[in-house]
Structures are given as structure tokens and as C-alpha cells.
Amino acid sequence: MDLTRTEVVARKRGAAARFALLAAPVAFFAVFFAYPVAAIVARGLKTDGTWHLGRIGEVLAQSDVRHVLWFTTWQALVSTALTLIVALPGAYVFARFDFPGKHVLRAVVTVPFVLPTVVVGTAFLALVGRGGLLDDLWGVRLDTTVWAILLAHVFFNYAVVVRTVGGLWAQLDPRQEEAARMLGASQLKAWRQVTLPALAPAVAAAALMVFLFTFTSFGVVQILGGPTFSTLEVEIYRQTSEIFDLSTAAVLTLIQFAAVGAILALHAWTVRRRETALRLVDASVTARRPRGAGQWALLGGVLVTVAVLLVLPPAVLVQRSLGAPGFGYYRALTSEDGGVFLVPPIEAIGNSLSYAVAATLIAVVIGGLAAAALTRRDAGRFVRGFDALLMLPLGVSAVTVGFGFLISLDEPPLDLRSSWILVPLAQALVGVPFVVRTMLPVLRAVDVRLREAASVLGASPWRVWREVDLPMVRRALLIAAGFAFAVSLGEFGATVFIARPDNPTLPVAVARLLGRPGDLNYGQAMALSTILMVVCAVALLVLERLRTDRTGEF
Amino acid sequence: MAGTLAACGSSDGGQGSGDSKTVTLVSHDSWAASKDVIAAFEKQSGYKVRVLKDGDAGQAVNKAILTKDNPQGDVFFGVDNTLLSRALDNDLFQSYEAKGSERIKADYRVDRDEHRVTPIDTGDICVNYDKKYFADHKLEPPKSFDDLVEPQYKNLLVTENASASSPGLGFLLGTAAQYGDDGWEGYWKKLKANGVKVVDGWEQAYNEEFSGSAGGKKAKGDRPLVVSYASSPPAEVVFADPRPSTAPTGVAEGTCFRQVEYAGLLSNAKNTKGGKALLDFLISERFQEDMPMNMFVYPVREGAQVPPEFVKYGPQAKDPETMAPAKIADHRDQWVKSWTSLVLK
């Protein structure tokens, strides 16, 4: 304790500030995540006031449960490997090449990430199923094979790799590699000794994120895999929603929780390694027109990959939505037939936009505060642990969260079940992690010396913040908001349980229309899906226009 | 957007679950009723009706059980005979004998001592066939469970996962009723060997795999036999534009299992008076005659008229398989588990 008095006072102030910043995020996650999940797990493992933890061993001993665990793990590993193989060339192209339409293409690449799985499942069936494009051209069918699942996972997660690895790659100073080459290193050696070490943490982080998303895959496996393939998430859904074996569902939830926690801890570690190791430059300095046949061929290859894997499935949806003459399916959306909905399906658009705006506001406030707290240089181990905790909603079963909301937020002082805000709260749980991961790198990158210089010259803390921090943070906030908006718009897993029939969201409306017989209902589902894709694409296109020089992780 | 959110807020306030002027019905996704019929009830009773649809039937029942201590509504509609025991064993309902119950056909009435549920509608889970396929191939469509394992019907049938889907479960129970407790497994071994395809739910089976439905045609479904309902052919006619003069699909009448759907007054319901009035209305002639063209089910009330589309395209099966709810309760979970091991693994 040889600190000076000033240092002691400063440290106490820092602790107070950190606590204040974290109070809202901690409360938000405690009330709207930890409490609901704990409630539904307890419902399954605690009866008549007694815990039955022996149930955990019993469930793990069942061969079909071990089969689910094995399938979940190996398909996630293969999905991750395939995604990296397909997407890393894309990351390089976006990082180092400048070409017309680049911004639009980046938005196109990101749209799949936020589409509802019910929509993508149908689109992929039309691509790889019986009577699909592959079937027509080459007699190849992949539906109800694991290949359909793997391809759809690449479709969804391509953007994670491109944006995570490509975003960093674009800011690596190419002069370091060039310097090594001038000193006699071969191109391969320079790449292996300079670029690869710099990229490795980002690749690892992207791989872990893709693994997380595919490990917890629900809609894709459920729709494309059929009843013979189950991930943990699908099995939790079946046990809770269909079979009503709450104790098995609770055990599976705990297993997934533990696995996801481990993945997130690893991810947090790789992210911190990345951030402390690099000297970054402006992305515009590193990108240039492709040169030589090899580079143009690479660009062409990436474009073909994007066209076939990412553009073709949505194109099938659009084509189907135009199946009736004179936009008949779109016009049908405005009629109130008293059938599937109590309101015309088109009202789902307004509902979804309203909910997504509310969810975005919640996510940006909570996520922004959390990111600010995590950015402080004196953050301790507790705060770094909270970093990983913030990501948990991405990995915990949406079914668990949805049902948990139902049974825990149902009495005063938190009787929200008949309140409109329940849906945006569920959506915000998924949006907050994206806000945090978008803003953290930007906030951490603010040059501390710039702020210190301003202080020395007499600027007040408020003015330092306004002149130095705000311009950089504002754009990051807008990007984070765009992402949270798109993710909220497409959220389905938890919302399907809590969205009200007089206020359905777009994904819920699509699922309900698909569940009804008849050409008109099917066509309207395709039309609504197309509208949802367009709205997401527009949001992401606007997002691209607001890119900062130092991009976030998503 | 602030205006929209405020509007949501204010309208929610007006429909709070504590408002005794509102009666709330919780149902599966397939609930539907004509506006004027609901309006008539609202006018006659003074209650405003709110409907909450909660996914497929199994999902809705499970959700209702999970929230039974503080239910989302007053009346639950849509628990069928295959899931009834789960609802009753979990004390989902309180007793109420709806006015007019004596007009319900005796076959459909259960729980006569405690009156916890009231039959509302019935339907038949049956194999449907694509008429065009069988005409093109000059093949007789199957008529019975026995037919489905014949070689000429190899690789033609698609059904739903019995653990996840009420038609899938109904079909399984139909085979158990036909072949007995010890005989259905042998039948399913033959059915599997004859190329039956299993998908998760009705939407996939009917709108993607089945070659006879509008959705299936678009998806290029290649299975001309699907487990669906006796009322599916009229739906294909009613929702088509323009309407065909004959239904594109038919029903294999010897493959039917009778399904009955019930409604009951939820335990801990906040508006029990409104709930009782709504239950009375659900078995009134007005509502019973409105149901078929909205939910594609048949009335349980004697004397209720069915619409001409049903008479022409989708009459009720004459001699469907049935099974007592108590027997279903005793065997359902074990049979589903055995079926899963036999057919899916």
C-alpha cells in the first residue's frame, strides 16, 4: 500500500464509475436471463421443494442422449471447418481488394446471418431438396442428409468469418510483411511469420463463434434434418414443447450451458489476445484493385461462391413469392380472412418494425453501458468474466428462455406476460451481445494519449468526451444499432412462444402461414419472407455506409 | 415509432388479464372463427373475446400446464383425446358442465363424473392420396392399413414424427387400435421396410413432401400418400383460386383414427363467469355450424349442419379406429418411445 493519496482516490472513483456502468447490464441480465432460465430449469429438477440432481446422471446414461451430444459436437466441428474453408478467401478479398459494389456485396453477405431459420429452411429445401435446383440440374438431393444442415450452416455463418477476420485483415499494416520480404524472406515465409500470427487469434475467435452458433443450431436442424438429426437445442425443444419431460430438458439445458460457457471463455481469451497484439492502420490504405490473373481469379471465385451459396437460396424465395399473377400473394397479405391471424398478415410488418426498434433501444443502452464498463483499462477479472457472461444468451436454448419468461415474469412486480414489451426484451437478449462485440473494439481503440493530451491542455472531462470520444463512438453506436435491429427482426426461437396472435412478428407469421394448407397461405409465407429479407438487407446496407475505420467483430 | 408503441401500450392496458369484461381463450395455432360469430357472442354475453394462439397442439397444452398457476387465459381449447391425460393429470382444468352438453353425441363425451373438459369438435386423422398420381399410374389408391405395406405402395407414404405431431401420434394410435398392443410393432416394421418416410411435422409432410397439395406441388413433393385429415380435401378446394370442380386429393377411409378436441375452464382462471359463458357458446349450434369452414373439423353437436363442401369433398369416416383416453394415457409415452427406436433409429 504505497499508493499516493491521489492514486487511492482515483482508484476509488474508477471503481465507483465501473459499478455504475455495470449496474444496468447486470440487472438486465439477472432479471431477464438468469432468473427465467433458473426458473424453468428448477421446474424440471426440483419437485416438492427437493432437488433431484441424480437425474443428471440418469439422463447422461441414456444412449440416445449421448447420441444427441455426439451429433451436436461433430456437426458443429464440420460446419465450422467448412465455413472457414469457404469464407476465409472471402475475408481476404474483402480485406485487400477494392472493387465496384463492394459495400453492396458486404451487405449481401451479411443478410443470411439475420434471416429467420424457418425462411432459410424452406429456401434450402427448394435448392437441395427433391425438385430443387440441384435435383433438376444433376439429380442430386441432399435434403434430410447432414449435408443440407452443413450447407445451411455455411450460409448463415459466412458473414461471421468475413466480418471478423476480414475486418481485422483490412487493418493489418501490409508494410510489415513487405519489410520482411525486403529483408529476404520468401512470400510464404513472410506470410507465415508476419500475417498468420496476427490473424490467428481472429480466425480462432471466428471459428469459436461459428462453432457456438452451429453447436446451438435449432431451426436449421429441425427443418432440414428431419427427425433423425437432433442437436441439443432441438432435443431441448422436443423434450419441453412436445414430449413434456421437463427434467430431461433441464439436464440438457445445463449441459448446453456448460459447453457454451466453455466456448465463450475461450472466445473471450482469443479476443483479448488479438486486441493487445496488433498495430492497426486505416482500412482504406490496405485495399487496392486486384492485380494479375491470380487475384482476379480469386475475386471471381469468391463472387461465384457468394452467388451460388448465399444469393441463390433467397432468390428461390423471391421467385416463389411471385408465383401468383399480378403480385397476388402480396395483395393477399392485406386481407383479413379471420383464419390464421386476427389481423391482416401485413400488420406483422408494422409489429416487427416496432418491436425491433424497441429491442434495438434496449440492446443499445444495455450493451453500450456494458461495453463502456468493459473498456476501462482498470477492468479486473470480474469484469472480464462478465464479458463472457454477456454472450450466454447466444448459446442458451431459446426454448428455455421463452418458456422461462412465461413462468417467471408472470407475477408482480414483474407481471409482463400480457405486456407488449415481453417480445422486445427477448429480442434484446440476443441483440445485446452483438452491440457489445461491435462497440468494444472501437472503445478500446480510442487513443488514450489523445484524451490525456486534451486533459493536460485544460479541457474538462465532459469536453474531452465530446471532442474525442463521441465522434468515434457515435458511428459504432449506429453500426451496433443496425445489427441489433436486424437480429431482433429475425429472432424466432423465443419469440414464437411469447408473441401474441394479434401482434405476430414477421418470422412467427411466416411459420404460421407455412403451417396451413393451401396455395394462398403458402404464397403469402413466401411473400412475407421476401419482405423480411428486403428489410434486413436495407438495414444492413445502411449499416455498411456507416462503417468506421476500425470495424467491430460482427 | 413512438406512436405505435404507445398505441400498443394503451391497447394492452385495456385488455389486461384482470379485466372481467374480457374473456380469454388460449388455443393452438389452428383456432379460427368467423368474426360475426364471435361478435354475436360478445353482444349476447357482454364479454369481449381475446384469443391467444400458442403453437401446435402439444406445445400449447404443455405451455398451458407450465403456466397453470397463473394462466394466460380463462378457457383452453384444443387438447385432443391423444393428449387429454396429460392435461387432466396435471390439473389443468376446473370442473364445469357446459349448458347444452346433453346435445353432444355420447361417443365424444369423457370425464363424465368431473366435467373438466367439454368436447368441441372432432376430426379424422387419415391417409390422404394424390388422385392424379394414382390415375396416371393406373393404380388403385390404398383403402386400409393393410394396403399400405403392399409392394405397389412402396416408397409412397410420408408420415409425421409421432413424438412431435398430433397427426403422427394419431396414426400410430390407429395402427395400435387395429393391430393390438402386441401387433402394431410388427406392422411398423413392415411399413418401414416398405419405405415410409418420417418428417417432423404436418407442415413438412403435407406442404413439402405430399404431391397432391398446393404447397407440395410447388415444392415438387414426390410422396402421393400422406398422413393428414379427412377434412384436408375440402381445404384444398376452398383455398384454391380458381376453385376446382373436384378435389385433387382423396381419403383412404380404412386408415382413419378419430380425434376429438376438447375445451375446459382453466384452473385459476381470472374470469370464470366469462369462461363458462364462452364454453356454453362453443357447443351452441351457431358456433358448431361455423367451425367446419374455419378449422376444418366436424361438429360434435347433434343436429348441427355441415357445409356442402364437406359433404361433397370430405365426409367423416364411417368406421374410424378409436381408443379410450385411459388406454392412451397408459401407453402413449411408452409406445412413442418404442416407435421412435423402431422407426427413427
From TrEMBL, chain A:
It is a multi-pass membrane protein. Belongs to the binding-protein-dependent transport system permease family. This is Thiamine transport system permease protein. One of its GO terms (cellular component) is plasma membrane. GO terms for biological process: transmembrane transport. InterPro entries: MetI-like (IPR000515), MetI-like_sf (IPR035906). CDD domains: TM_PBP2. Residues 69-265, 349-543 form the ABC transmembrane type-1 domain.
